[in-house]
Design goal:
Blueprint lengths: L7 H9 L3 H6 L2 E5 L6 E9 L2 E8 L6 E15 L5 E8 L7 E8 L4 E3 L1 E3 L15 E6 L2 E7 L6 H9 L4 E8 L3
Antiparallel strand pairs: 1-2, 2-3, 3-4, 4-5, 5-6, 6-7, 8-11, 9-10, 10-11
Amino acid sequence: MVNLKMVPILNSYLEASANRAEAIKTMTILPIQAGNANLYLLEFSCSNDLCSYILLDQSKDNPALLVADLARTVQSKLSPDNSKILLQFNREASLPIPLTNLVVVDLVEWEQISLTNETNDLQVLAYHWPIITAEWTDDQTITVSLPDVTEPVNKLLQQWQEAGKPITTIDLQLSTK
C-alpha cells in the first residue's frame, strides 16, 4: 500500500492516466535489502526503458521520496552504519556507456543528502559523467570510479574502451547541514 497523500507526484501521475488500473499494473516494486527497514523502489511512468523511481519505507509511516526521473536503476547500497542508502541511476545516451547520477537518502531523517566532489572540480553527478563503480568508503564518503578521459564525449569514450578502460577515482563527501 502506498499513501498517495505522501506521494503527490504519484497521485498526479495516476490522476492523469487514462486507465488508472492499467497504469498501476505497469508499475514495478523492487525490494531493497536494508537490514531491518522495509525499503522498496517503486518504478513507474516508464517510457523507452527509462522510468521514474520513488523510494518507499514500509517500516515507518510510509514515507516516500522521488529519487529519479527518466532513468534506469543500477544499484542500491547501505552505508556501513546502515543509516543511509546510496542509489545509482543511469540514463541511456548515444555514448558507449550511460551517464550516471547518485542519490543518497538519510534513512533516519528521511531526506536526500547532497554530495560534494572533494577530489577535483569535475561535475560528475546529475547525469554528466558515466560512473563505473560507486562504493561507500565510510559513513560520510563514497568513492567512485570514472573513465579516465578529459570529458565524457563519444570519441573519447570509444578511445577509452579501446585503451583497456583505465579509470580514475574520486571521493564524494556527504554534505553536512
